Amino acid sequence: MHMNLEPHYKALRYSSCDVPVGIALILTSYTYFISSLCLSIVLYRLSPLHPLYHVPGPTLWRISKLMGAWMSYTGHQHLYMKRAHDKYGPVIRTGPNEVSVVDADAVVSVLGSGGLPKGQFYEARKDPRAPLNLVVLQGEGHANRRRLWNRGMSTESLKEYEAIIAKRATQLLDCVASAPDPNIVDLAAWISYFSFDFMGDMACACQFGGGFELLHNEADRTNIWPIIEKFAVTASIYCHIPWAAHSMQLIRLPSRDRLRQFGTDNALRRLKSTTTTKDLWYHLMDEAGLEKTKPPLGDVVADGAIAVVAGADTAATALSSLFFLLLSHRKYYQALQEEVDAHFPLGADPLDTGSHADMPLLNACINEALRLYPPVTTNGPRQVPRGGGRIIAGVFIPEETQVYLPPYSHHRDPRYFSPSPEKFMPERWTDPALAPNATAFIPFSYGPSNCVGRNLAKQEISMVACLLLSRLELRFAPGFDAAAWPQQLYDHFITTKGPLMVSVKKR
To answer: Family per UniProt (predicted)?
Structure first.
């Protein structure tokens, strides 16, 4: 029987041709939809309908937090924000739902007791496969953990740590003084190695003299230091994009895994130790039995890793900045060296902390270094909670808005630090006529969540500065571009530093 197959062939031919046409139509429809959605979001964020429309700021910042991520990638977020504040004023919009405020009164209302809680920025720093550390905790959990930290950073505890600082500082002196080429010494790198070694000792005393040995072991530097810096950069970027941060947390990052393993390995060594030293672990683990319930081991491991990384960075940045400023201003270098010599004559121990409080120029130089180059230049934001907005610095800020109070911008504001807020002037801390606004000075943040290790950092800085100034004569290395060094202080929540090249001569 003869069958007419022509209609079937036509149908097959038409359907095969329709497939690419259908795909093209679908792609076109999605393109129009996504483009329209993005355009509507952009128009809304720039329109008077947005609750932050009244807050000035760069247009691209108002549209997307991708700009914030890019600024963090460059490491110069603090510089961009400072320039924006100079142009737009003390309250600026830095994101679709984010502002930055430079105002002394806002320091108290945002960071003080009863201020704003931590928000999305810190949520992005939580590791879903690890316990929470002190940095991301808030509320009662933070208060309970902070109580343990406060014991570990008490005056009595700091006295326990003096011998550890002294040992590591002496090693630092030996390394710098015996460098193969005394005209090319990276002082910032050596200070970082010292600070990391010391924090390892202080956090887990069982490692004293055999745990972290960055000062004497190049392999240790290449194994852990790049991991810390790489993770700091990565975390600082994706914290600006919460939805991306949550996705990234589900992906195994080699740097994060190695950093977590690093903390776990050190904790296991401390658990096996029979040391009787009251190190930070002793207090965080509540080995004195002062708490109703024993802190979970995981919490202590998480905080121990934070102590080493953040604590080492804070002191290292402050010390490097102090020497950079002193070397850039020889009259202050010489004056401070004379003050050190007067308090520690030949035969005296410059590591003796008993005299540091009576050295006005030393403390003034440290404060001025912390002012010009705070260890945490931008800091993390707080977030206005739901249930209504807040008036901050005279401006209404709606709920769920993130609020930055960048120390770098506060410290260079002429309203609080004059004259010449951009200049290194230690006398502003000793001359009552030049007294700065103390509330605007926030190198270690402010309030219940301020840096718990601030006194330890100052102790480290004082001891190392006195030792190096009493034993060495330092100058910038020949050919070193000192003017460019501040541009190599990179803001990745913690601060990473470029080389600070000096020439060294024993006194």
So the answer is: Belongs to the cytochrome P450 family.
